[in-house]
Specification:
The chain has 95 residues and is an alpha+beta fold. The chain has one domain (9-90). It has helices spanning 24-32, 49-55, 71-75, and strands spanning 9-15, 58-62, 67-70, 80-84, 87-90. A 5-stranded antiparallel beta sheet has the order 3-2-1-5-4. Strand 4 (80-84) and strand 5 form a beta hairpin. The structure holds iron/sulfur cluster. Iron/sulfur cluster (SF4) binds next to strand 2, helix 3 and strand 5.
Length: 95
């Protein structure tokens, strides 16, 4: 990317019909960073319940983990830079 040196990948956000389950590791990480409570309820700062509902039905084909991941996992990923027009600006560092 020329306009953003931090960004290595532009990853399109896809719509899915059924939300992809977060892995136990992803849940533990979310709890670790205070974005999920003990009951497994997500608490993302600045994200309304309506947005959250929509985010649950989105996924990305992650170029770093080389698998399809729930967008929520991508959103809280260290490599997440921003999301513009349905594309994630991913720093692409090895994780
Ligand atoms: S921000 Fe993280 S989860 Fe999202 S595409 Fe990049 S490496 Fe994958």
């Amino acid at each position: 990317m020329d306009d953003n040196l931090d960004t290595k990948y532009l990853v399109p956000v896809k719509q899915v019909e059924k939300s992809i389950k977060l892995t136990p590791e992803a849940k533990a990480e979310l709890q670790n960073i205070g974005m999920m409570d003990d009951k497994g309820k997500l608490k993302l700062k600045g994200v309304s319940p309506k947005m959250l509902k929509r985010m649950k039905l989105e996924s990305v084909d992650c170029p770093v983990f080389q698998s399809e991941l729930p967008f929520i996992q991508c959103y809280v990923c260290k490599n997440f830079h921003s999301r513009i027009s349905g594309q994630v600006y991913c720093k692409g560092d090895p994780l």
